[in-house]
Design goal:
Its cofactor is Mg(2+). This protein has 453 residues and is of the alpha+beta class. Helix content is 49%, strand content 10%. The strands form 2 sheets. Strands 2, 3, 4, 5, 6, 7, 8, 11 and 12 form a 9-stranded mixed beta sheet that branches.
Length: 453
């Protein structure tokens, strides 16, 4: 990890905001950004659109109608519906302020949860005690510092669209199917183009995480891995230093989603090309040669995100450094260690045997070790071995401490040594030996153990 990165990271952790120097007040130029005169670009009536209207969604709309507040579907769900996809979740935007929503829901006896979002304008009602919806007041990010924003509420839909990151995420959807698009996201989506709302440099400086979000959404909508606009990549490169004060958890959420989408390997290389590596915890010179090998032999095998990450790391120390920055889950962290340690060739007369041993001798949960081995085989491009491994039923080792005791082995530390040696014999003989077969080896194992004392 670079000394520059460590120095700035210490300042960030000490509460010194790197982005303070870039603190900016939203300008009138932002407010007057060129937009469509008539924002309604189309009207949806697809099966995907109609499927979103659950009883709870309709009841939510009735509440806002009763109190004469506008409410529309916002952001990603609109984009997904325009792509012919059913949204996984719905977020809503409204002209009602948080206080007005609280008063309305209180009068109507609607329970509200997750009150932490209120300062950002979000209230979460639980409709019919069945479904939660995030409803956010239209707002303007008046003052930004690269991580946080001071917001001002508004009733102007265009101003709220203007504060969003990408044009494809800045559209709204009325309950009658009308799609409201102020900044030409509809056309960009048709072209599969990822573009920032307005000036990309301004948008990124408002929140440097948008560098990572650019790549995530490129993988979501683009049709080829190399249609980036050079001007956009240059702006990303000019701003990568700002990532060093974005929390690792937020970075990892975006990066992991990118690695689960299309063109994961290519996007990872493009990210590294614009300079993100050292600011997100990767080595300054990631192992691109290894990544290229993995992509060539295995990208078609639906790799886990950690396989892409592991390919860039040369040793377990680099895994530890990256984990300290991005804060992986324990499963993802241990999988990455496992991949780095076990990705090299394993010599055996029976090719699957070394991998079976990894499962049977594992010190972690057997289920996890089984999945980790599957990922190692994918990482290596071993399709035939993976097919065999998928058919392999994990056998149960028939010997335990109770059996040793019955066979006159005195309790003690040598129990683990004897069990381990018996298990090796059992594995080498393809699990065919019974308890009776295995206990015959005990005297010789004890003799070997005594000689080594």
């Amino acid at each position: 990890m670079s000394s520059i990165y460590l120095g700035v990271l210490k300042l960030c952790r000490a509460g010194v905001n790197y982005s303070t120097l870039r603190r900016r007040i939203r300008s009138q130029i932002d407010m007057a950004l060129k937009s469509r005169e008539n924002p309604v670009v189309t009207k949806l009536n697809s099966s995907e659109f109609n499927s979103i209207f659950t009883e709870e969604v309709l009841d939510l709309k009735k509440l806002f109608d009763k109190y004469q507040y506008e409410i529309r579907v916002a952001g990603g769900a609109v984009r997904d519906l325009l792509m012919g996809q059913k949204p996984t979740d719905l977020d809503f935007a409204t002209t009602a302020t948080p206080q007005q929503m609280k008063e309305m829901f209180t009068i109507e006896n609607v329970r509200m949860i997750n009150m932490n979002g209120e300062k950002h304008g979000t209230i979460t009602p639980r409709i019919n005690d069945k479904e939660n919806f995030e409803v956010t007041t239209l707002r303007i990010d008046m003052v930004t510092d690269g991580r946080h924003a001071e917001v001002e509420f508004t009733t102007d839909w265009k101003l709220d669209a203007n504060r969003r990151d990408l044009t494809i995420n800045s559209m709204f959807l009325g309950f009658d199917g009308s799609v409201y698009d102020y900044f030409f996201g509809y056309e960009d989506l048709q072209k599969r183009r990822v573009a920032f709302v307005g000036d990309p440099d301004v948008r990124i400086k408002e929140d440097y995480l948008r560098i990572m979000r650019y790549f995530r959404f490129y993988g979501k909508i683009a049709e080829s891995p190399d249609k980036h606009e050079e001007k956009t990549l240059q702006v990303l490169s000019n701003n990568v230093e700002g990532l060093q004060c974005i929390s690792g958890e937020r970075i990892w959420v975006e990066l992991k989603k990118t690695l689960q989408g299309k063109f994961a390997g290519d996007l990872l290389k493009t990210m590294i090309g614009v300079g993100v590596a050292k600011y997100i915890g990767l080595p300054e010179n990631p192992n691109l040669e290894e990544l290229d090998k993995v992509l060539k032999r295995a990208e078609h095998m639906k790799l886990h995100p950690m396989s892409y990450v592991a390919a860039l790391l040369r040793n377990v120390d680099e895994v530890t450094v990256l984990h300290s920055r991005l804060k992986f889950s324990s499963y993802d962290r241990d999988l990455t260690y496992f991949l780095v340690v076990h990705r090299e060739d394993k010599v055996s007369t029976r090719p699957l045997l070394p991998y079976e041993k990894l499962v049977l001798n594992s010190k972690i949960k057997q289920k996890d070790s089984y999945e980790y081995v599957r990922e190692v085989l994918k990482y290596r491009g071993e399709e035939s071995l993976l097919e065999q491994f998928n058919k392999w039923e994990i056998p149960r080792f028939p010997i335990n401490g109770k059996i040793l005791k019955v066979n006159n082995v005195a309790p003690g530390k040598n129990y683990s040594t004897i069990l381990s040696r018996l298990k090796d014999i059992w594995i080498e003989n393809e699990y065919k030996q019974s308890v009776e077969d295995l206990v015959k080896f005990i005297p010789d194992i004890i003799k070997e153990y005594d000689k080594k004392k």
